Amino acid sequence: MTAKKTITAETILARYADDIAFVADEKPATTLAALAEQVSTAGERLGEARINGAEDLETAADALRAVEDTPLESRHVFLRHAARHLRHVGDMVDEYRLMV
Q1: What is the DSSP string of 29-84?
Q2: Is the Cβ–Cβ distance between 68 and 39 less than 8 Å?
């Protein structure tokens, strides 16, 4: 049986902030709230570029926003949900880089 990896705000920011910031044309986010806004912007831009999976980014942004209003002991649920919808960001951004 494989152990689940712990997803934290720090791991989400470390994995995705740079790529998302590139598409959003902003400095990398340092908070989940800022990342959620950038993820929404990136989703719109990737969608306009017709990149598969862009629609998942709004779901990820919603999950990131929900973390703020969730008790500390339950935040991991929304962080995992966001991470699941962000997992292909690297591929999407690579494709976007080839277009711009």
Answers
A1: PSSHHHHHHHHHHHHHHHHHTT-TTTTHHHHHHHHHHHHHTS-GGGHHHHHHHHHH
A2: no
Nearest CA to 56 out of 37, 81, 78 is that of 81
- Rounded CA separation 35/29 (Å): 5
| pLDDT per position as a tens digit, 2-29 | 556 789 999 999 999 999 999 999 999 9
Cα 76 from Cα 94, distance rounded (Å): 28
Residue 67, SS3? helix
CA atoms within 13 A on the CB side of 71: 2
Instruction: Average the pLDDT over 63-68 and give the result.
Output: 94
Token pair in block for residue 74: 């339950």
